């Protein structure tokens, strides 16, 4: 993992259906991205894999403190990472994510994925992820990448991930996360509404909320704006805290 001068490392955690290659659109300091089990070229994991398991795997393959940027599923895993391994997480950026999955919605989505296949779910997912304006340009590289990954992902692995999200619930533990956290909310995000992100930021002890004119895939549709927010976060997170824990 590429490290910065102070020994820390910037880590990007991707959304469901994508892989570590999605970080290529972000102009950031040296950044490492991992691929979750069942995604990209990785084989489907054992049944019952949880988001906490994904977080534990990351720690097992890295050293030193981490500034973790998580988008959607990646943000959920980042929360588990901060809770289970607080000594390893220096700061968080949580983009378009939630502290609690909806079990009924995720189970229904998993069942539909197994019935229709990954390609059969493609249009529904893209409509949740991007604005209509972006979808009118399907050949845009970021959209083409997302469409290709979603269409070709193993349907069983995708269904496994939806079910894992359905069991995700750290809402009542958010007060334990005391590292500087920036919550990025997309004003046009139909998957994670603004009120969810506002509540998430309010429950975290050291947090700030950044609003963007973006959909759920903020980092793919508006990568320059997203990267600028991450760079700003890193500066803010490095500032000394007051005795009460607040940043200037």
Automatic annotation (TrEMBL):
Keywords: Hydrolase. It comes from the Bacteria. It holds the Pfam family Abhydrolase_1. InterPro entries: AB_hydrolase, AB_hydrolase_1, AB_hydrolase_fold. One of its GO terms (molecular function) is hydrolase activity. Residues 64-223 form the AB hydrolase-1 domain. Gene3D superfamilies: alpha/beta hydrolase. This is Alpha/beta fold hydrolase. It comes from Pseudonocardia xinjiangensis.
């Amino acid at each position: 993992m590429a490290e910065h001068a102070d020994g820390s490392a910037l880590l990007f955690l991707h959304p469901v259906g994508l892989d570590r290659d999605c970080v290529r659109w972000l102009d950031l300091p040296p950044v490492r991205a991992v691929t979750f089990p069942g995604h990209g070229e990785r084989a489907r994991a054992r049944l019952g894999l949880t988001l906490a398991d994904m977080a534990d795997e990351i720690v097992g393959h890295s050293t030193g403190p981490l500034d973790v940027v998580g988008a959607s599923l990646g943000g959920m895993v980042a929360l588990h990472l901060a809770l289970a391994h607080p000594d390893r997480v220096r700061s968080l950026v949580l983009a378009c994510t939630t502290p609690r999955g909806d079990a009924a919605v995720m189970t229904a989505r998993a069942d539909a994925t197994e019935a229709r296949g990954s390609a059969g779910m493609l249009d529904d997912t893209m409509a949740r992820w991007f604005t209509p304006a972006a979808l009118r340009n399907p050949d845009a590289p970021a959209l083409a990448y997302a469409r290709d990954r979603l269409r070709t992902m193993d349907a069983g692995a995708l269904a496994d991930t939806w079910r894992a999200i359905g069991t995700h619930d750290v809402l009542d533990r958010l007060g334990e996360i005391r590292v500087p956290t920036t919550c990025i909310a997309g004003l046009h995000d139909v998957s994670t509404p603004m009120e969810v992100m506002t509540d998430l930021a309010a429950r975290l002890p050291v947090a700030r909320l950044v609003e963007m004119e973006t959909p759920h895939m903020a980092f793919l549709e508006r990568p320059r704006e997203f990267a600028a927010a991450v760079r700003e976060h890193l500066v803010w997170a490095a500032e000394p805290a007051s005795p009460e824990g607040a940043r200037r």
